[in-house]
Every structure is written in structure tokens, then in C-alpha cells.
Design goal:
globular; Nucleotidyltransferase, domain 5; alpha/beta; 2 domains; five-stranded mixed sheet; six-stranded mixed sheet; 13 strands
């Protein structure tokens, strides 16, 4: 039987995860490789002192269409692109028929660049830069056609994975916890694209009483920043926060308590949407890195989330690391099918 391959690329704020999917003659995914991860900090030109441009500045420049992307952003963008190319090289790329690529941040109108990026560099020419690198280093090869939304890709992967937590479900809330928050809603067995659903606010748009957004209080990078904004965000810093919370450190416990309140506010906001439409969520799924963290027994953050969860909605954890890569690959295959 003749099979082809689709490559899913999940670009994040700290690393890129890539996975190769085998597809049959009907363009159905029938097998997958182990994921490959390339950390940006392992690229030799990575700037450990890089600080993203403040979001209010980024939004102002986007609204005025007057971008001032400086040397540091351009340099860090090159690191990300190099990591993406290296992850493609890891696989037998000559047999790849489709590439699906997702990335965080607000995209340009044609989905070929990143105009606002909370935890990394902006790059208005990202897709062009990647495809140029592909052509120069890999030769004649499949181009990447657009940059998919990372949140939407996460939900797609969770829905279409053979063991996905959204597979046998019609109405659900998805929260992907990583550097940021991947917001997702499954409604009437349809995955909503929150970019075109203005009545549904994303985590970074919903404010707590103290003025912080849900994403600032509940994302892993947000937790790191609140614990120690002088140190680089890392799993070690997170673990220090969690260990201090276990030992009843007052500040650590308050940070996690605020995270629980942010989670509760997000869930209540999502429930309002469902109830307005005459539905109710069947489950809440927490995935990505946060799903793996919360899988640990008696984890202090899990205890806080359980405390603030709405009691009549089951909470499930997804341990799949590849959902966004799978969702991106699925999108690329689907778009080719409908051409």
C-alpha cells in the first residue's frame, strides 16, 4: 500500500515540537512517529536576555500599522526559524506531502506572520522566512502555506486523536496550559474558531478584580513571573513555586489561590456562553504541559483547581504532548482535500 506523510509543527514560546504522521490514499492519518522537540535555548544564537516588547506597545503598533521591530526581535526570530528547520531535518523530509504549522500570537491578515506575541518576538514575514530557509537548506520541498492558530490546533488534535479527550464528546471546554493559555470550545460537536467569535473572550482578554488577565494568573509563564520575575521562566522555577506552596509559604500559596480564582472565572465565562445557547458543558479538559503537571498525585495546583472547579462538570487531564502538531497536520491535509 502506498502511504504518504504529513508533518505537524507546533511552534511555542520556548520550543518547537514536530511529529510525522502517516496518511493513506484517502488522506487519513493511520500512524504517527514519536514527537521530536527542539528547544530554542539549545540553538547557539539564542538570546537568554531577550524580553518581549510590552503588549500595550505591540497592540498600539498593530492598530496604527506602524511596527518597530528591532534587532533583538529579529535575532530571536532567526533562532525560532532555525529550530523549525532543524526539526524538519530530523525526519525523512523528502517523503513529506503536507506540512501543517501552528504558532502562538496574533497573526497578520494573510496568516503569514505574527503581529503580536506575548512571550516572544514578532515576525511579520515569518512564513516567507521559513520557506526561504527550507528552499535554501532542503532544496525542492513542500512549502508551508499558512500559520495556523495554536489554540485551535490543540482542540483539533484533542478531537481527532484516537485517544483524545474530546473524541466522544459534543460540548466541552478546553484549556491548554503552557507558556500561555490555549482556549478552546467544542460546541454541538463543532470546534469554534475563537478568532471569529467576538462574543467569546479569550483568557488574555478576561480580567480579574486586580486587573490581571486570566492568562497572567493561570498560565505557567504567568505563575513563573509572579513567583520570580527576575529569573528566566523554567520548569525548575515552577517546581520551586509548587514546593514552597506545599511547605505553606504564604506568597506561593497566594499565587496558586489566585490561579484557582482565574480558572473559576474562565469556567464561569464559558458556562455563560453555553447556557446562552441552551447547552451545558459535558466536561473540562486541561491539556498540554499543565495537563501533565496536574497528573501528579496531590499536586498543590491541582488541589486548588479542584477547589474552584464547578462541581457538576467533570474535569479530565490530557497527557498528549502532540495535540497541536496533530491538529496542524490535520488542517493542512483538510485544506488540500477541499482545494
Amino acid at each position: 500500500m502506498y502511504n504518504r506523510f504529513a508533518l505537524g509543527i507546533d511552534g511555542g514560546a520556548s520550543k518547537v515540537l514536530t511529529q510525522l504522521f502517516t496518511i493513506n490514499k484517502n488522506n487519513e492519518i493511520i500512524d504517527q512517529s514519536e514527537p521530536f522537540e527542539q528547544s530554542y535555548k539549545d540553538v547557539d544564537t539564542f538570546n537568554h536576555q531577550f524580553i518581549p516588547v510590552p503588549l500595550n506597545t505591540q497592540n498600539e503598533e498593530m492598530n496604527n500599522e506602524n511596527y518597530k521591530i528591532g534587532f533583538n526581535e529579529k535575532g530571536q526570530s532567526k533562532v525560532i526559524i532555525k529550530a523549525i528547520i532543524e526539526s524538519i531535518k530530523y525526519f525523512n523530509y523528502k517523503n513529506i506531502s503536507f506540512i501543517g504549522f501552528c504558532f502562538p500570537g496574533l497573526k497578520t491578515e494573510n496568516l503569514d506572520g505574527v503581529s503580536v506575541m506575548a512571550n516572544g518576538p514578532r515576525n511579520l514575514e515569518m512564513l516567507n522566512d521559513i520557506n526561504k530557509k527550507i528552499a535554501s537548506e532542503l532544496g525542492p520541498f513542500v512549502k508551508i502555506n499558512k500559520i495556523y492558530d495554536d489554540s485551535l490546533s490543540c482542540v483539533l488534535g484533542e478531537k481527532f486523536s484516537h485517544d483524545g479527550k474530546l473524541k466522544n464528546c459534543s460540548n466541552a471546554i478546553y484549556i491548554g496550559g503552557g507558556t500561555g493559555i490555549a482556549d478552546g470550545i467544542l460546541f454541538n460537536d463543532r470546534i469554534l474558531d475563537l478568532k471569529i467569535e467576538p462574543q467569546i473572550k479569550k483568557s488574555w482578554q478576561i480580567k480579574m478584580e486586580n486587573g490581571d488577565s486570566i492568562e497572567e494568573c493561570f498560565s505557567l509563564s504567568g505563575l513563573c513571573k509572579k513567583w520570580n520575575d527576575k529569573k528566566p521562566k523554567s520548569i525548575e522555577l515552577l517546581n520551586d513555586l509548587f514546593n514552597k506552596a506545599i511547605k505553606k509559604d504564604r506568597i506561593a500559596m497566594q499565587i496558586l489561590e489566585d490561579a484557582g480564582k482565574a480558572f473559576h472565572l474562565l469556567i464561569k465565562s464559558r458556562i455563560k456562553f453555553f447556557e446562552f445557547e441552551g447547552k451545558y458543558p459535558e466536561k473540562i479538559v486541561i491539556g498540554q504541559r499543565m495537563g501533565q503537571i496536574l497528573n501528579e498525585k496531590n499536586h498543590p495546583l491541582k488541589n486548588v483547581i479542584n477547589k474552584y472547579n464547578v462541581k457538576d462538570i467533570p474535569l479530565e487531564l490530557s497527557l498528549n504532548r502532540n495535540t497541536a502538531a496533530l491538529g496542524a497536520a490535520q488542517s493542512a491535509i483538510h485544506e488540500d482535500n477541499v482545494k
